[in-house]
């Protein structure tokens, strides 16, 4: 190998390691934010229900590595990772989950309906499949406006049984809408295995709707980000929909507090964070530097929680505010 070729190869491998480190840091931040969500929920500081996405971080971070602020996403009840990966600020996130006036939705959305249009996060969604059609609508808007922005819908395998999902695939294919259907297949729909719920494969369904389909190992950050980048680049050019099935794990219960009595002892799930950390260490990152990165995440999350604690709750008198869009009469 020539000296120039060797130098190019080294530079490209350094670039890859720097990108991987950046994505790893985002995953660590999501894991830490969710760990603290669990603590705050148990202590009664987060009202309602929360559903954590431990084990699924490589999907949100890997796919969104190729998205910009102009691109839009819709999410699910398990949407913390999606919101943070899309760029929702930590402060806004914790204030929203803790029901405070300075939250992303002024404390009205909470965990299951957090949204921030300024970063293209169209909302988490308590309705299974509810976000899918929203992303299709947003993708249509991108197409009509011109440019190369795309929309993505993150949904679980449970959404495959919903009518709206089938309608959404059909219309996206019929009208050639640049929407990425990103399925996080963790094998569970609440307390039931997917195999007891669905009779078709997502691959067959995509083929029936004439939409290109790819499957990735959702615990493998490098694979998710490489395949997503390829797909999204193609979508920016050809303005067509795509289906990406990410095989992933739900490391925790369906919701926080779920005793998981329905769950048998299976093989230990692969942790995408541990897997990526190993890769980084093999590429030369020191354990000390990686520990420091985790420490930084803990400090950032702790500061955001403290800021949320200092923020006020909405007043009772303001309960009816923000119900209607500005300028729209009831
Ligand atoms: C339309 C609708 N039906 C049923 C429910 C109750 N429900 C909440 S979560 C869930 C399962 C979701 O499974 P999946 O989409 O695979 O996501 P996961 O929880 O595995 O991330 C169900 C059936 C709901 N919220 N909305």
Strand proportion, as a percent range, falls in 5-15%
Helices and strands, in order, run as HHEHHHEHEEEHEHEHH
Number of strands: 7
- What structural category do the secondary elements indicate? alpha/beta
How much helix, percentage-wise, in residues? 40-55%
The kinds of small molecule bound in this structure are: thiamine diphosphate
**Spatial gap, N to C terminus:** 72 Å
Notes on the structure:
With 330 residues, the chain is of the alpha/beta class. It has a single domain (13-258, 268-313), classed as Thiamin diphosphate (ThDP)-binding fold, Pyr/PP domains (Rossmann fold), CATH 3.40.50. It is built from ten helices and seven strands. It has a five-stranded parallel beta sheet, sandwiched between helices. The chain has a two-stranded antiparallel sheet with strand order 4-5. Helix 4 crosses helix 10 (287-310). The longest helix has 40 residues, at 3-42. The chain is globular. The termini are far apart. The mean pLDDT is 95. Thiamine diphosphate (TPP) binds at residues 76-78, 126-128, 156-159, 186, 188-190, 250, 254.
């Amino acid at each position: 190998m020539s000296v120039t070729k060797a130098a190019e190869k080294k530079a490209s491998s350094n670039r890859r390691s720097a990108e991987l480190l950046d994505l790893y840091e985002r995953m660590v931040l999501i894991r830490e934010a969710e760990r603290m969500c669990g603590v705050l929920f148990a202590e009664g500081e987060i009202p309602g229900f929360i559903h954590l996405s431990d084990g699924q971080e490589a999907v949100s971070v890997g796919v969104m590595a190729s998205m910009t602020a102009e691109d839009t996403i819709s999410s699910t009840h398990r949407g913390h990772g999606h919101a943070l990966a899309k760029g929702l600020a930590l402060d806004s996130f914790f204030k929203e989950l803790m029901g405070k006036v300075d939250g992303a939705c002024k404390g009205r959305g909470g965990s299951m309906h957090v949204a921030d249009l300024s970063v293209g996060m169209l909302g988490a969604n308590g309705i299974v499949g509810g976000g899918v059609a929203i992303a299709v609508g947003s993708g249509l808007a991108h197409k009509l406006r011109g440019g190369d922005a795309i929309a993505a819908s993150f949904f679980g395998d449970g959404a495959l049984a919903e009518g709206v999902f089938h309608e959404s695939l059909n219309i996206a294919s019929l009208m050639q809408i640049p929407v990425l259907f990103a399925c996080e297949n963790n094998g569970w729909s609440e307390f039931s295995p997917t195999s007891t719920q669905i009779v078709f494969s997502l691959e067959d369904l995509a083929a029936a709707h004439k939409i290109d389909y790819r499957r990735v190992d959702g615990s493998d950050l490098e694979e998710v980000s490489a395949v997503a980048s390829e797909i999204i680049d193609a979508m920016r050019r050809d303005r067509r929909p795509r289906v990406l099935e990410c095989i992933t794990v739900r490391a925790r219960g369906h919701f926080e507090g779920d005793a998981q009595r329905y769950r048998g002892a299976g093989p230990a799930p692969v942790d995408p964070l541990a897997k990526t950390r190993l890769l980084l260490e093999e590429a030369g990152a020191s354990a000390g530097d990686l520990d420091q990165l985790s420490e930084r995440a803990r400090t950032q999350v702790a500061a955001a929680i403290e800021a949320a604690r200092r923020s006020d709750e909405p007043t009772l008198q303001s309960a009816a505010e923000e119900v209607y869009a500005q300028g729209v009469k009831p």
